[in-house]
Amino acid sequence: MDIVFNCPNCDQELAVDSTGAGTNIECPSCHETITIPGVPPPAVPEVHALSLAASPISTSAAAKVEMHLKVPVLDKAPAPLISKPKPPLEVVMRGAGKKILSHTIKHGACIESGHDKFDEVVTKFLNDVGETNIIGIHTISYTFLDIGTQKLLNDYGLLVIYRG
Predict the structure, then answer these.
(1) pLDDT tens-digit profile of 8-62?
(2) For residues 156, 158, 159 and 164, what is the CA-based torsion angle, rounded to 10 degrees?
(3) To which H or E segment does residue 84 belong?
(4) Distance CA 11, CA 29 (A)
C-alpha cells in the first residue's frame, strides 16, 4: 500500500511505498530533505441506522478507488478552450449581429401646418437606416377617431422592418 502525502516545503504530491514510513528522502521537486509520514490508521466507517445493508454503490470498485486530485490555482483567467468561429464577411456586411427592429410611419403624423411631409419623413428615415439594413417595407392602413369631427377616418402608413 502506498503512502500519499504532500511535501511540506513545495506542496508537491508524493506517493511512497508504506515500508518507507519514518525515513528521510529528498523531494524530487524542491530537493529538500523530508521525512515520510507514518501509515494513517484505516478510517472506521460510520454505521447509520438506515444503511444496515451494504448498498451496491458503496461496495462497487469505483467507490473504493481513492482519488488524490488538486485544483490548479491560476493568477489570471484561462484562455477559452473552445472559441466561437467568426462569421463570414458576407454575413457581417449584411449586419448579422444587429437586432431586428420595426418602425411605423403614419401618414397623419406627417402633416404639418397643412403640408403633407409623409414622403420626406419616409425618405429621411430610410436614408438614416441604410439600404443594406432594410429587411422589408410594408404598407399599412388604419382607422382612427378624429377628435375635431368625432368621426372614424381611414389613413395609411408604412411599417419598416430593419436591422439596427
Answers:
(1) 888 888 888 888 888 888 888 888 888 888 766 665 555 555 554 556 666 666 6
(2) -150
(3) none
(4) 9
Sign of CA dihedral 22, 24, 28, 30: positive
Q: Residue 15 corresponds to which cell in the numbers above?
A: 506517493
In this prediction, residue 97 has a pLDDT band, given cuts at 50, 70 and 90, of: low
Give, in order, the Cα–Cα distances in Å from 5 to each of 31, 69, 103. Answer: 16, 12, 69
Q: Contact at 8 Å (CB) between 15 and 66?
A: no
Count CB-CB contacts under 10 A for residue 157: 19
At 78 the three-state DSSP class reads coil
Q: Is the CB of residue 9 less than 8 Å from the CB of residue 30?
A: yes
User: Which H or E run includes 27?
Assistant: none
Tell me the pTM. Answer: 0.42
List Cβ neighbours of 33 (8 Å cut-off, separation of 6 or more). 24, 25, 26, 27
Using an 8 Å Cβ cutoff, are 12 and 32 in contact?
Answer: no
Neighbours of 105 (CB within 10 A): 19
